[in-house]
Amino acid sequence: MSDNYIYSAEKVIDELSRKPGFVDTAIKRWEKRDPKCGFGYKGICCRLCSNGPCRITPTQPVGICGATADTIVARNLLRAIAAGTSCYVHHCRNAANTLLSVAEGKSSYTIKDEEKLKKYAKKMGINTNKDIKRIAYEFATRVLNDLSKPYTEKAELVEKLSLPARVSTWKSLNIMPGGVNEEIIAALTKTSTNLNSDPVDMAVHCLRLGIITGIYGLELTCIMQDILLGSPKIASTYSNFGVIDQGYINLATIGGHQQVVSNRILEMASSKEWVKKAQEAGAKGFKIYGVTCVGQDYELRCASDKNSAFGGYVGNNFTQEYILGTGAIDLVFSEFNCTLPGIEPICKEYLVKQICLDDVAKKVGADLYQFQPEKADEYAAITLDEAIKAYKNRRGKVKIDVPTEKTPAMTGFTEDSIKGALGGSWKLLIDLIVKGDIKGVAGVVGCSNMAAKGHGIYGVELTKELIKRDILVLGNGCVGGNLENAGLYGLESIELAGPKLKEVCRKLNIPPVLNIGPCLSIGRIHIIAEEIAEELKVDVPQIPVVASAPQWLEEQALADGTFGVVLGLDLLLGTPPAVTGSNLITELLTSKLKDMVGARFIIEADPILGADAMESSIMERRKLLNI
Ligand code: SF4
Ligand code: FE2
């Protein structure tokens, strides 16, 4: 643990971990774990058939079937990316169906950002001189049509929503995706036993899935959530364990990204009618605390609303067991990913009610209310009723002991609000970049893991190093949770920035690390990068914008990381994906992709050297712009 963070999120976790009798957690299990399997780590283990599992060794360079290390690695990678893309598309489908339910008058959602709906409807070629619900209908229908097309037909919206220069590169590489669902099915089919054995063909399929993840899973989903839930505004807030207030009926949203029903729960919990019910039970009202990405999205959208029942963002994916272990939470609800099975015994021990709102994320011991936008109000009411019951049942029986550390942060930064703060266009940012006051922009995004130097260490060290070098950082996701609890999303972090960036941040009254919310906001980085490239009349690989998923964790991160690179952003990873057993695939990802799409994966275990690599990439790009 570094002792020079402004605030120490890791200190709270360390102290709780050392507390005698405190619950078991992923971080504790990580410390006790046996050494990693070297074959799995390199991606050269295959268990696709009953003659296996096979592993590649110097004396057994191919599997029983004859599959080489390159084939096995490519097959494993494509399967993993297909699963990650599938998760993103699941969310996109549910968001589009929710928009459709509004258009058809079948749910209680409304269109909260009409301007955004019209802006992107126009880009999609929809005539916007008509009733807003009709526009929403056509928007949702076009998204859903692309999902269900055959893979032999090209998905229509990729071209409409991307920079022409990118599209022509993608066309020349034959990676423009076909129908979304079928591209995922084709990936699963070709990676089954004794089907495709061509590592290059499978790697190219990974790139198509990357584009699908970016356009549908990230950008369109982000836009549809803004349309339905309202676009965020810049605000000041607090994070960390100290935001928890024991005077309320306390709910935690532990889950990532999808938040259609979750948002109704928050709105209902903020209503006078339900506050009264909570008061009748002896509490001051309801508070819903954010853990993982839905919490960050709540923070992004709600921190500016003083009447909201949002209680604050507490921490990321690996803090969830600690939060429940404090005893302060009455009910947990989850609508999608990043809910650790490790919370189940803790919920049982601490009498915490568990509710799941989509069967893809069903947990043991949880009640399931299957996702349907039409039933969101009914599910929200059930959830709040259950929270009241859990509150009455638990108080007095369960020991509550919550750390008090609170970290100031700013939130609400999006492609629109950043542009707004800069005077309405990207001109000021571009001028600052041209002058060298801001050397470049770096996304520090995605998950958190323990594998890269321990929980939250790599991402925080990398970010401090980047801002020290006058590089403006856009943070999000669970690594963003580490940045936030360490104080990097707050104005005090201006003092850690390099002299030029410090001046800029002081003038604009913004921190050098802008909190763009959940992982899903990687879609916002796509929009920002393309808008800047468009304004400069160049392609994305020429602009001084790079990214890192320093503590990537899961299949979805592999899918969205692939998108970042295909989009033209060099992408730093603190730990390698399971590909190092194949020279061909490793070489392709870390070098050859540069010639193909203008960007590559950078793998670097040391955050300072990682910052060196990101800075070099930015400097190369500045040269391409002659600045
Ligand atoms: Fe081994 Fe080939 Fe079967 Fe994989 S598919 S387990 S490499 S025999
Ligand atoms: Fe996330």
Automatic annotation (TrEMBL):
<dbReference type="GO" id="GO:0006091">
    <property type="term" value="P:generation of precursor metabolites and energy"/>
</dbReference>
<dbReference type="InterPro" id="IPR004137">
    <property type="entry name" value="HCP/CODH"/>
</dbReference>
<dbReference type="InterPro" id="IPR016099">
    <property type="entry name" value="Prismane-like_a/b-sand"/>
</dbReference>
<keyword id="KW-0408">Iron</keyword>
<keyword id="KW-0560">Oxidoreductase</keyword>
<feature type="binding site">
    <location>
        <position position="338"/>
    </location>
    <ligand>
        <name>[Ni-4Fe-4S] cluster</name>
    </ligand>
</feature>
<dbReference type="GO" id="GO:0004601">
    <property type="term" value="F:peroxidase activity"/>
</dbReference>
<feature type="binding site">
    <location>
        <position position="49"/>
    </location>
    <ligand>
        <name>[4Fe-4S] cluster 2</name>
    </ligand>
</feature>
<feature type="binding site">
    <location>
        <position position="37"/>
    </location>
    <ligand>
        <name>[4Fe-4S] cluster 1</name>
    </ligand>
</feature>
<dbReference type="Pfam" id="PF03063">
    <property type="entry name" value="Prismane"/>
</dbReference>
<dbReference type="InterPro" id="IPR016101">
    <property type="entry name" value="CO_DH_a-bundle"/>
</dbReference>
<dbReference type="GO" id="GO:0043885">
    <property type="term" value="F:anaerobic carbon-monoxide dehydrogenase activity"/>
</dbReference>
<feature type="binding site">
    <location>
        <position position="478"/>
    </location>
    <ligand>
        <name>[Ni-4Fe-4S] cluster</name>
    </ligand>
</feature>
<feature type="binding site">
    <location>
        <position position="447"/>
    </location>
    <ligand>
        <name>[Ni-4Fe-4S] cluster</name>
    </ligand>
</feature>
<feature type="binding site">
    <location>
        <position position="45"/>
    </location>
    <ligand>
        <name>[4Fe-4S] cluster 1</name>
    </ligand>
</feature>
<dbReference type="GO" id="GO:0042542">
    <property type="term" value="P:response to hydrogen peroxide"/>
</dbReference>
<feature type="binding site">
    <location>
        <position position="54"/>
    </location>
    <ligand>
        <name>[4Fe-4S] cluster 2</name>
    </ligand>
</feature>
<keyword id="KW-0479">Metal-binding</keyword>
<keyword id="KW-0411">Iron-sulfur</keyword>
<keyword id="KW-0004">4Fe-4S</keyword>
<dbReference type="GO" id="GO:0050418">
    <property type="term" value="F:hydroxylamine reductase activity"/>
</dbReference>
<protein>
    <recommendedName>
        <fullName>Carbon monoxide dehydrogenase</fullName>
        <ecNumber>1.2.7.4</ecNumber>
    </recommendedName>
</protein>
<dbReference type="InterPro" id="IPR010047">
    <property type="entry name" value="CODH"/>
</dbReference>
<feature type="binding site">
    <location>
        <position position="293"/>
    </location>
    <ligand>
        <name>[Ni-4Fe-4S] cluster</name>
    </ligand>
</feature>
<feature type="binding site">
    <location>
        <position position="46"/>
    </location>
    <ligand>
        <name>[4Fe-4S] cluster 2</name>
    </ligand>
</feature>
<dbReference type="InterPro" id="IPR011254">
    <property type="entry name" value="Prismane-like_sf"/>
</dbReference>
<feature type="binding site">
    <location>
        <position position="65"/>
    </location>
    <ligand>
        <name>[4Fe-4S] cluster 2</name>
    </ligand>
</feature>
<feature type="binding site">
    <location>
        <position position="257"/>
    </location>
    <ligand>
        <name>[Ni-4Fe-4S] cluster</name>
    </ligand>
</feature>
<dbReference type="GO" id="GO:0051539">
    <property type="term" value="F:4 iron, 4 sulfur cluster binding"/>
</dbReference>
<dbReference type="GO" id="GO:0016151">
    <property type="term" value="F:nickel cation binding"/>
</dbReference>
<feature type="binding site">
    <location>
        <position position="519"/>
    </location>
    <ligand>
        <name>[Ni-4Fe-4S] cluster</name>
    </ligand>
</feature>
<keyword id="KW-0533">Nickel</keyword>
